[in-house]
Amino acid sequence: MVDCLRVRPAALADIPAVLPVFEAAKAIMRADGNFHQWAAPGFPGAELLQRDVERGGAFLIEGPAEDRLARDVTAAAGRRIVGYFALLPSPEPTYARIDGAWVTGEPYGVLHRIASYPEIHGIFQTVIAFAKRRYAHLRIDTHRDNHIMQHLIAKAGFTYCGVIFLEDGSERLAYAF
């Protein structure tokens, strides 16, 4: 499926079609025992996605519209939205303090909000390949309970660097490539 996936910048008009992707991703997390990440109602929501779009860091992953999934999403030229991610430039304010150490102090791209429908495979590999073409160094963080994401991050060759803290004080496991 990876060869069939394409990345394109998201526009404000795409936001309504992205929100169900986040709900599907939350269902994956809950089924895997991750009950705390993205737990606030409506998070991540349209306002956050709008900020990603305005910063030029919102991206959609499209797959073939003829896929066996029949979702009510926008499809153009035989394609439909199957995933979303944010790829933003450094600095990431929550990465300024880390209990641990980053592998480099060089500028980096930050990956946030990677989400997809559970039936679609190859999303993470597609995201990483796209991000590596844009940045020599990448950083990503995830919730301690998100074992699926931790596995994907390690498999992609990221190095565990330590724990960072969000604005609300909650911790996240931080990685760099």
Write the topology of this structure:
Layout: E1 6-9, H1 15-31, H2 46-54, E2 58-64, E3 75-76, E4 79-89, E5 98-100, E6 109-116, H3 123-134, E7 138-142, H4 147-155, E8 159-165, E9 171-176
Parallel strand pairs: 6-7
Antiparallel strand pairs: 1-2, 2-4, 3-4, 4-6, 5-8, 7-9, 8-9
Total separate domains = 1
Distance between the termini: 24 Å
**Text of the CATH class:** Alpha Beta
Order of helices and strands: EHHEEEEEHEHEE
- Structural category: alpha+beta
CATH architectural grouping: 3-Layer(aba) Sandwich
Regarding quaternary structure, what we see is: single chain
Strand content: 25-35%
Describe the main β-sheet briefly: 9 strands, mixed
Cα-based radius of gyration, to the nearest Å? 16 Å
| Helix percentage | 25-40%
Q: Looking at this structure, what is the CATH superfamily?
A: Gcn5-related N-acetyltransferase (GNAT)
Tell me what the structure shows.
- With 177 residues, the chain is an alpha+beta fold.
- It has a single domain, classed as Aminopeptidase.
- 27% of the residues lie in helices and 30% in strands.
- It is built from four helices and nine strands, in the order βααβββββαβαββ.
- The protein has helices at 15-31, 46-54, 123-134, 147-155, and strands at residues 6-9, 58-64, 75-76, 79-89, 98-100, 109-116, 138-142, 159-165, 171-176.
- Strands 1, 2, 3, 4, 5, 6, 7, 8 and 9 form a nine-stranded mixed β-sheet that branches.
- The longest helix has 17 residues, at 15-31.
- The two termini are 24 Å apart.
- Mean pLDDT is 91; it is low at 67-75.
